[in-house]
Amino acid sequence: MSKPPTLTLPRGARAYRLATARGDFAVHDAGEPRAGTALLVPGFTGSKEDFIALLAPLARQGFRVVAVDGRGQHETGGPREEAAYAQEELALDVLAQAEALGGDVHLLGHSLGGLIVRAAVLRDPAPFVSLTLMSSGPAAISPAQQARTRMLLDALAAMDMEEVWQAMRALDPPEAADAATPPAVRDFLHRRWLANVPEQLVATGRQLLDEPDRVAELAAVPLPKHVLSGTVDYAWPVPRMDDMARRLNARRTVIEGAEHSPNAERPKETADALAAFWHDCRAAGAGPDRPVSRFPG
Fold first, then answer.
1. What is the pTM of this model?
2. What does the alpha-carbon distance between residue 90 and residue 103 come to, in Å, rounded to a whole number?
3. Does a structural domain hold residue 9?
4. Rounded distance, CA 247 to CA 228, Å?
5. What is the Cα–Cα distance from 173 to 46, expressed in whole angstroms?
6. At the top level of its lineage, which domain of life is listed (predicted)?
7. 229 has which bridge partners?
8. DSSP state of 284
9. Which of 38, 52, 215, 225 places its Cα 20 to 30 Å from the Cα of 171?
10. CATH for 31
11. What is the mean pLDDT, run by run of 10 residues, along the chain of 297 residues?
């Protein structure tokens, strides 16, 4: 999971519930849309706070940035039934969020969020002017992470959320020890885990295990695309993301010093790369009918 470097919203940002045709979603919202609006969708076990360090630098570059808790995540909540978290349902939520924001939207998904936003774009690219897949690959996660995810699914079937949290912490590598995490962030990660709807975790965990390769479908969508990652990734090997970018004819950005969460690990460099891509899209008048090709670059 991403560990936000801070939990303090930047000046001018606000937390509220975004009303949509598919319900209300907890969001962080910063900036004015002088250069456009960006919708940021978090990954498995994540939340809007994963993007908190991107809000100020992107707002300074002229973007309205809206990071969302998806259905069943953290402060949004959701029903206690797995069918509510089918990928198609989550994709429809993203489309409803974009509609509620209005105008043309730059769409970004991190990790599992990349699979969800891909499904949204494949269903209807019209609300979007670009798509960024951050630390998200072409299909199911790596074999090692599949094994870890199956362990989690088994644990969720047998234990309550607190018991699962304690079991996960026992499996963390030494470098992920709580002593290296600020107490406020450590407490937040615990609270966030307990706030997740278990059925959401089960349904989306299975998506990570079973996701087919839909890159060819996405490549046929006339929308400018961007694949961004760190130099190391445990969920999808970086060479797989390189290949996905080539197949998509997408801009490819690798953030030095970052791993699976460049949004939290190297936020300034990540924000600069995102803003550059989005500004280029605007300069080219890009959208569903006029894509921008940016691979390599």
1. 0.94
2. 21
3. no
4. 14
5. 19
6. Bacteria
7. 254
8. T
9. 52
10. 3.40.50.1820
11. 91 97 98 97 98 98 98 97 98 98 96 98 98 98 96 96 91 61 92 97 98 98 98 97 98 98 98 98 74 46
